[in-house]
Amino acid sequence: MKIIDINIENIDREHICCALSDKKGEFQVSSKKAWLKDRFDDNIVFKKGDVRGKVFIEYIPAENAWCPINADGYMFINCFWVSGKYKGQGIGSKLLNECIKDSKEKGKKGLVVLTSYKKRPYLSDGKFLKSKGFLLADTTKPYFELLYLPFEENNSVPKFKDTVKKENIKESGFTLYYSNQCPFTSKYVPIISDYAKEKGIDFRVIKYESKEESQNSITPFTTYSLYYNGEFVTHEILNDKNFEKILLSKI
């Protein structure tokens, strides 16, 4: 499989894999592509297979990552996804090796990635990464892990910032933190926000618009994190039916 680098010249004509490809998904596609375009000056890299499928890796210098970590000199993997019929063919290893090669050529100390102690939607597969030599750098509640792959011995170990070590936040009701890093937030955030408004639910939305805001976040997963009465509920992007189930369990 050929690997394509997405850049400002080809992004408008290339399929970016994780977004829907039909007309109903055009808004998600455009929001993700707009987010990527704004990150090219921050040296983001998006590599994908030359197929219309979820086969890609997205990474950025950790200093520019939308994640509250201390990992100067590392490359941060935003998203890494191989799914469906493309799994089990070594494509994930090929994409990861492309990232390693590129990062070494750019003089990086290693790679760092946000994941979990078990496989969860919207997070990279920690088990796979550990099989490739990634080590545990840090953890934070309720289940997030920060993994890293140092290119040399004695390199500094990345850490979560202290802002994410707090067990809860002060706001009552539901608080949703999100960004347009994932195309699905542009669809589902308005859906559950409108649903909450219709039902008279105490619900507020805080959108991260910059890396500075994200790097000082109280939640490690700035793409999407839902809290209720200050306690973390989920990082998984919810539709109205899934949100309704959470409502029934909380209210």
Low-confidence stretches: none
Q: Count every helix, treating DSSP H or I runs of 4 or more residues as helices.
A: 6
Computed Rg: 18 Å
Beta-sheet strand percentage? 25-35%
Biggest β-sheet, characterized? 7 strands, mixed
- Strand tally is 13
Helix content: 25-40%
How are the SSEs placed, and which strands pair?
Blueprint: E1 3-6, H1 26-39, E2 45-49, E3 55-61, E4 69-70, E5 74-82, H2 91-105, E6 110-116, H3 126-131, E7 135-140, E8 144-150, E9 159-160, E10 174-178, H4 185-199, E11 203-207, H5 211-215, E12 224-228, E13 231-234, H6 240-250
Parallel strand pairs: 5-6, 10-11
Antiparallel strand pairs: 1-2, 2-3, 3-5, 4-9, 6-8, 7-8, 10-12, 12-13
Describe the structure.
26% of the residues lie in helices and 27% in strands. The protein has six helices and 13 strands. Strands 1-2-3-5-6-8-7 form a seven-stranded mixed beta sheet. It has a four-stranded mixed beta sheet with strand order 11-10-12-13, covered by helices on one side. A two-stranded antiparallel sheet has the order 4-9. A hairpin with a 3-residue loop joins β7 and β8. The longest helix is centred in the middle third of the chain and has 15 residues, at 91-105. It is globular and about 55 Å long.
